[in-house]
Structures are given as structure tokens and as C-alpha cells.
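Exercise 7. Given the encoded structure of a 391-residue chain, write a plausible sequence.
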């Protein structure tokens, strides 16, 4: 556990969130959506209406499965020298047990409590005969139609793809229904973007849960020492990088972020929850911190606050912008007013210039703002690339 320290103080920041109650029904745990929304019916993506589903395809990597089978002595040569891509053809689909796939998807739906989700049997075959909605990483040999012994594998692949798509489709429809019910609300201490509290003294304001392999003893010792300092509120390093045998952990303190330190982690032997910053996000925070320290007068009467926005399921997202979850939210206070900026440091190099929801978000946020309607807050969007230093 690595404790955090919050920096909100007495400021009452506004955040866009789903209303807690819709027509008398609470929205927590999706209750309002299940009781009030039209029942979604599973179907393939429908053109521009479901453009986000086509651009954010279901991804299934079958290589780890092949490796596990090989380790258990269940396969021979696995062809792992390159990551091939494939898809289920109509000839594969004709051999599959559609009833089994349908019943398995119904069981999957019921296990998740999606009782307001209609999955007709005809949708199963329609989805499997169309590969536009998924990307499958799999050795070519596994899909070669040369032996019926492979049929159980093809069945498992089909069912795995269907489950992933059903989960994405249901979440997409839920977000679409909830979008008109957003509101400005005061940022609360239990906002999902804050790390959850720990159980020990000094962990009341939240903790990172860091998992490190036992072989990284040097890194573990350093993290424990910093954890003790954070609990006692004596940790003073502004920017520190810890190095282990096969992993690194970088910590940065930034008083304008609503909690600190922020963490970037690298290496397969370490994992962090909430998810650590990536390289571009760390560069953005470092440069913003540098600017704030060099121009303190700019923020004396107009304070600035930053908060890392978590991804799908916990953070603030916008269905109308292609289910866009910005990486950061930034507040600038000016008397009784505040400006909220949604920031994505990844840039626009990999985006489409035509009908791109992220690029249109600068306009979309204005439309959302009009629907919410409050004169005390103003929302904007910023997309830019946080470039690495030139060498």
C-alpha cells in the first residue's frame, strides 16, 4: 500500500456526473437504466449510428491460450514467431453449434444481472458471419480448415468473441441512455477518481495498491520506506525514480493535482491500482508542474486544480463524443466561476480527420453544457501531443 495525500482543501469544484436519481429511481449500480430505459437488443453495429463500436473493435488475443496449452503439453508447434490476424469465415460458422453459443451467452448475461438485455438467437449467426466488429490475433494454423479436431477451439473462440461484444454493446447502450441525464455537481470525497482508502492509520485519504514480484526485493524495500513516510506525512521528494531488477516506479508530487504522489510504473513485475500514468501522461504532468512553479503569480488569485480521470466504468466519459474518456480534468477558478477543461495528451496523429468524435468534442461539449445549463461553470476540451524531449 502506498498512501496518497489529497490537495482539495475547501474548494468546491464542479464535475460532470450522472444524476443520482432519475424519475425517482436511483442510478447507482445501473438501477435506473434497467428499470426505465428501453430494453437493448443485441445486434451487429449499424453504420454511423454505431460508429464507436466499429472504431473500437472487440480484441481477442488467442496467443496466450496457445502458450498455456503448449505448456500443458496439449499442442505441438504453436507458430509464435509472429502475431497473425484471422477471422471466422462462413465455413467455420457453418460448423459451429449455434444453440450452444446462444445458451452460453444467455448464461453470461444472467451472471452479470443484465436482465433488461434481449439477446435473440438470430443475432448470434448475424454477428459471427460478420468480422467488422472484432480483431482476432491467432496463429493461421489454428483456423486452417484441415481437421474437425479443431472444432472445439473454434467454438470457444466464437463464444469468447460474443461475450466480449455483448459486454461492450450493453455498456454502450447504457451510456447512450444516461448521457442526457448528466449534471454539474460538487466533486465529492468519495468520487471514483480518488483512490480508495486503506485500513491503516495514514491511509484514510486513499492508497495505491502496488503488486511487485518477490524477486524485486530492492524495489519492495524502497516502496515500503516511502509508504511509511507518506503515512507519517514526512515524504518530501518532489520527483523520485525507483529502480529494481526488471521494474521501475516513478513518483511525482504536484500540489495542484487533487492527490499526490502520482505514479508511473514500468516492467512486467510490477502493477499499480489505480492504473499508473503512462509515459505521455507523466510528461504532461511534469511540464504542467514546471510551468506552475515558474509562474506562481498566475495562480495566486486564480487557482488551478488537476485530476487524473480513470477509464471506463469509473471516470467521466462522454457517449456523444464516441464514448471518449479524457485522461485529465483541469479546473481554473476565477472568483465564483470556474472553467473545466478535459485534456487528452495523446494527440491527434492516429485520429481520422473526417467525422472524428474526439476532434468534434470541442463542439460536443458545448452542446452538453447547454443541456446541463449553469452560468457558474464552463467546459472546454483540449487534445494535444505530449512530445518526448528531443535528443
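Solution.
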Amino acid at each position: 500500500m502506498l498512501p496518497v495525500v489529497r490537495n482539495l482543501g475547501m474548494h468546491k469544484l464542479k464535475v460532470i456526473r450522472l444524476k443520482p436519481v432519475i424519475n425517482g429511481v436511483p442510478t447507482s449500480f445501473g438501477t435506473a437504466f434497467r428499470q426505465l430505459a428501453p430494453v437493448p437488443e443485441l445486434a451487429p453495429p449499424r453504420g454511423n449510428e454505431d460508429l464507436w463500436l466499429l472504431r473500437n473493435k472487440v480484441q481477442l488475443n488467442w496467443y496466450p491460450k496457445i502458450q498455456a496449452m503448449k505448456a500443458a503439453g496439449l499442442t505441438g508447434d504453436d507458430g509464435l514467431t509472429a502475431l497473425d490476424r484471422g477471422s471466422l469465415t462462413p465455413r467455420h460458422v457453418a460448423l459451429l453449434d449455434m444453440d450452444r453459443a446462444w445458451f452460453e451467452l444467455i448464461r453470461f448475461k444472467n451472471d452479470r444481472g443484465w436482465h433488461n438485455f434481449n439477446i435473440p438467437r438470430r443475432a448470434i449467426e448475424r454477428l459471427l458471419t460478420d468480422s467488422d466488429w472484432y480483431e482476432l490475433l491467432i496463429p493461421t494454423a489454428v483456423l486452417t480448415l484441415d481437421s474437425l479436431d479443431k472444432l472445439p477451439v473454434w467454438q470457444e473462440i466464437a463464444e469468447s468473441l460474443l461475450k466480449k461484444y455483448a459486454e461492450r454493446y450493453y455498456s454502450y447502450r447504457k451510456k447512450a441512455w444516461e448521457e442526457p441525464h448528466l449534471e454539474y455537481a460538487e466533486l465529492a470525497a468519495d468520487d471514483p477518481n480518488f483512490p480508495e482508502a486503506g485500513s491503516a492509520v495514514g491511509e484514510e485519504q486513499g492508497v495505491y495498491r502496488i503488486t511487485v514480484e518477490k524477486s524485486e526485493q530492492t524495489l519492495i524495500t524502497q516502496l515500503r520506506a516511502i509508504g511509511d513516510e507518506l503515512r507519517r506525512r514526512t515524504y518530501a521528494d518532489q520527483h523520485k525514480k525507483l529502480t529494481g531488477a526488471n521494474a521501475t516506479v516513478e513518483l511525482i508530487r504536484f500540489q495542484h493535482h487533487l492527490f499526490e504522489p502520482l505514479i508511473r510504473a514500468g516492467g512486467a513485475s510490477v502493477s499499480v491500482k489505480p492504473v499508473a500514468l503512462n509515459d505521455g501522461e507523466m510528461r504532461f504532468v511534469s511540464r504542467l508542474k514546471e510551468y506552475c512553479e515558474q509562474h506562481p503569480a498566475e495562480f495566486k488569485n486564480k487557482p488551478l486544480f488537476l485530476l487524473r480521470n480513470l477509464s471506463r466504468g469509473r471516470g467521466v466519459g462522454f457517449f456523444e463524443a464516441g464514448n471518449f474518456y479524457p485522461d485529465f480534468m483541469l479546473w481554473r477558478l476565477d472568483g465564483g466561476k470556474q472553467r473545466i477543461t478535459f485534456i487528452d495528451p495523446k494527440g491527434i496523429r492516429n485520429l481520422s480527420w473526417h467525422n472524428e468524435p474526439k476532434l468534434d468534442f470541442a463542439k460536443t461539449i458545448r452542446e452538453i453544457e447547454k443541456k446541463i445549463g449553469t452560468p457558474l461553470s464552463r467546459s472546454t476540451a483540449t487534445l494535444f501531443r505530449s512530445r518526448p524531449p528531443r535528443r
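Remark. The two ends are 36 Å apart (CA to CA). Students should compare their own answers with the one above.
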